[in-house]
Amino acid sequence: MSLTSFNIIESTLREGEQFVGANFRLEEKIEIAQALDDFGVEYLELTSPAASPHSYRDAKRIAGLGLRARILTHVRCNLEDARKAVDTGVAGVDVLFGTSSALRRFSHGKSIEEIIDTATQVVSFIKGQGLEVRFSSEDSFRSDWKDLLVVYRAVDGLGVDRVGIADTVGVASPRQVYDLVSALRRELKADIEFHGHNDSGCAIANSFCALEAGATHIDVSVLGIGERNGITPLGGFIARMYALDKSLVKRYKLEKLREIESLVARLVNVDIPFNNYITGIAAFTHKAGVHAKAVLNNPATYEILDPRDFGLSRYLSIAHRLTGWNAIKHRAEQLNLALGEQAVKAATLQIKQLADERPLSLDDVDTILQQWMDSYETRME
Ligand code: HCA
Ligand code: CU
User: Fold this and answer.
1) Can you tell me the distance from the alpha carbon of 85 to that of 47, in angstroms, rounded to the nearest whole number?
2) Exposed/middle/buried for 309, CB within 10 Å: 0-12, 13-18, 19+?
3) Looking at the predicted structure, is the pLDDT value of residue 76 above 80?
4) Which domains are assigned to the chain?
């Protein structure tokens, strides 16, 4: 059952390097690799050593770090690139070929027979070197299913470890992913990897559906960085699996997620989005009075993720017109102000009225509560 035994292929150092703001130096790559290894991802995928001299040097260096995660590199499906990949000392090689008619016509110009021929040489070479090998078809969802099946059956017959399907342009819907992976699962012995771009916001859902249909490996990157608006984000994928059953992600050091995202965000010069899964500033912020009251009684009412599992805490926003007296009462208690229910309700009304006039801060709330306490005490005297 692959939903319960999936592998993460962390591709910040490959797909992520294709993000417009990314240009990692060796020390930075090592820092990212070590952080992700410590987090517990099963695989790290590195940029093709054929891309540039430093890409070759860096892949070799990272492959030699002795990390627990298996190190992969990613190359085009040709012998020259495959040789370079093997030379770096990685544990496995992900090879990629375009099978869509557009790629066949406008990119490499090869027929399906030629693709199978080349794939056979490359896959056999890598396997012969004793390395793990994956064969993937670029733009799988705009490829003809018949073509895909012919190619995948051929590489499956060669004993490839994994076949990959790539939603290169983010066009696939969850149901399409489910259907294609199910069809491959019925036909093939190899493990199945899914790589999904997020152009239409389906990357996480598509990855999840791939697992439901029998995929075994999911590609992610930190914050989802990659070509265009990127791929399945590590944090969002973790949130999805946690939401299904938190024991599925207990093998990862979840409390490190924020640190890893901050590291990568800094290196590629972006902010962590306010609505980011788990770590966005609003991810555990509750605002409306009804929400705040229920969360105070039992956080699970409005939280499917427990912030403490990620080393985070929740925040109740109370200084606004949607606030409620239960949340204000809680604030009074935090301030050790022994106000009765009547006073708290009156203070809440005052806060709402003031919030209609201007934006409020928590200080404003505290001041109003203190004033009520003072007048209370004056009346008692
Ligand atoms: C790219 C290639 C790729 C490869 C995915 C894979 C894609 O566009 O640079 O190897 O499975 O999205 O097709 O990232
Ligand atoms: Cu991609």
Assistant:
1) 10
2) middle
3) yes
4) 2-267 (3.20.20.70), 285-380 (no CATH)
Atom 8 (ligand 1) nearest CA: 168
> Would you say how long the chain is, in residues?
381
**Tens digit of pLDDT for each residue in 196-232?**
999 999 999 999 999 999 999 999 999 999 999 999 9
Task: State whether residue 371 is helix, strand or coil.
Answer: helix
Residue 274 carries which DSSP code? T
Residue 234 to residues 8, 168, 240, Cα–Cα distance (Å): 9, 18, 10
Q: Tell me: the pLDDT tens digits for 156-184?
A: 999 999 999 999 999 999 999 999 999 99
| Ligand 1 pocket at CB < 6 A | 15, 18, 74, 94, 96, 136, 138, 164, 166, 168, 195, 197, 227
Q: Please name the residue whose Cα sits nearest to atom 5 of ligand 1.
A: 166
Name the H helices within the chain: 26-39, 53-63, 79-87, 101-106, 112-128, 145-157, 174-187, 203-212, 234-244, 257-268, 289-297, 325-334, 341-357, 362-380
Task: For the full predicted model, state whether its pTM sits above 0.70.
Answer: yes
